[in-house]
Specification:
CATH superfamily of the largest domain: Dehydroquinate synthase-like - alpha domain
Largest sheet: 6 strands, parallel
Number of domains: 2
Strand content: 5-15%
Number of strands: 8
Shape: globular
Radius of gyration: 20 Å
CATH architecture of the largest domain: Up-down Bundle
CATH class of the largest domain: Mainly Alpha
Helix content: 40-55%
Bound molecules: zinc ion
């Protein structure tokens, strides 16, 4: 009834309150003696990254704490130089998806010749990325991208947000410690949490065959839908933080099945240099229009999504997300985030070429993307 499908779950993750305390053991298991610690200025300023690194004995750690909101090739090059100068032999990423993705770029470029562009998915990079990738330990401080268990990195190269995909880009180990998210501010909790929820929903709707991934996606929807408001309202709620971090990891475990229109649009919007828009916030704002567009292609799956989210069978999923966004204090639309109507045709064109577009629940044209983007502008500008 189906063709042959590839199903792979690879990263070893240690999950639970206190998991970050395993770092020293995990580094020695991975044979890393001099790690480069990759983080961003915000996480460094809170003292969180230093606290995680503190128990490591031996020489002072080498830091790259300049990860931008959306990782760039320039930042990869800078971090690679620091890695080489200090004689590092592995990477520890502490932060959100940006720091983890940047760390993957560094682990790739310290072990592979040429330039980053040679390894982009669009340039056939999948076949050029080898097992030589330096060992990486990923420690997320947000519950959203799940990049700690993902095989992808998104890095901005020359104004384009490019995908780097390889089974060798899975971090060697992930330490998922919800303790590190207890202090995450409400807005970031909501925005990153909506990224996790979007991963679970979009992947579940992807037409590829992968029942285990669908089961994981539905479990992630249940956890995220049940915990995102509490985690946003009461950041110290340990059960809510645990469930959001699990939903985040599940989102990334499942999205090997492919994402869809939401991510196809969020990627080029996130690459608009002048705006530096947050990926999770973009997904939250774009999700209702994509759910309306995909509805005719997936009615049975929509019913299962409603069940997983604890909604009555009559509830419209797109309306549910729009109302959830309001309750979470997220922007009302792209216009409120500073996106102008004039940029939409350009974004629609890039969305149609994005790898995530290939696995949307129903085929999407450039015109469809433009219509969804216009619908996502929000009341302020229509
Ligand atoms: Zn995402």
């Amino acid at each position: 009834m189906h063709g042959i499908t590839t199903i792979r779950y690879l990263t070893t993750a240690s999950f639970g309150f206190g998991a970050a305390g395993l770092l020293a053991d995990v580094l020695s298991e991975c044979g890393v003696n001099r790690p480069l610690v990759v983080t961003d200025p915000g996480v460094r300023a809170t003292g969180l990254a230093d606290r995680v690194i503190e128990p490591l004995s031996g020489s002072a750690p080498t830091w790259f704490d300049g990860t931008p909101t959306n990782p760039t090739e320039a930042a990869v090059i800078e971090a690679v130089e620091i890695y080489a100068a200090a004689g590092c032999d592995g990477v520890v990423a502490i932060g959100g998806g940006s720091s983890i993705d940047l760390a993957k770029g560094v682990a790739l470029m310290v072990t592979h010749p040429g330039s980053l562009l040679d390894y982009a998915y669009v340039n056939g990079g999948v076949d050029r990325i080898t097992t030589a990738v330096a060992p990486t330990v990923a420690i997320p401080t947000t519950a959203g991208t799940g990049s700690e268990v993902g095989r992808a990195a998104m890095i901005n190269v020359g104004g384009r947000k490019l995908d780097f995909l390889s089974p060798h880009l899975f971090p060697s180990r992930a330490l998922c410690d919800p303790e590190l998210t207890l202090g995450l501010p409400p807005y970031l909790t909501a925005a990153t949490g909506m990224d996790a929820l979007t991963h679970c929903i979009e992947t579940y709707l992807s037409p590829l065959v992968n029942p285990p991934a669908e089961a994981i996606g539905l479990d992630g929807v249940e956890r995220a839908a049940g915990a995102i408001e509490e985690a946003t309202r009461d950041g110290r709620s340990r059960p809510a933080r645990w469930n959001m971090m699990m939903a985040s990891m599940e989102g990334a475990l499942t999205f090997q099945k492919g994402l869809g229109a939401v991510h196809a649009m969020a990627h080029p919007l996130g690459a608009l240099d002048d705006l530096s828009l947050h990926h999770g916030t973009l997904n939250a704002v774009l999700l209702p229009a994509a759910l309306r567009f995909n509805k005719p292609a997936a009615s049975a799956k929509y019913e299962r999504l409603r069940q997983a989210a604890g909604l009555d069978s009559g509830v419209d999923l797109a309306d549910w997300i729009s109302e959830l966004n309001v309750r979470l204090g997220l922007p009302s639309g792209l216009a409120a985030m500073g996106v102008s109507r004039e940029t939409l045709p350009r974004v629609a064109k890039a969305a149609a070429q994005d790898p995530a577009a290939e696995t949307n629940a129903r085929p999407v044209t450039e015109a469809d993307y433009e219509q969804m983007l216009r619908a996502s502008l929000g009341v302020a500008s229509s």
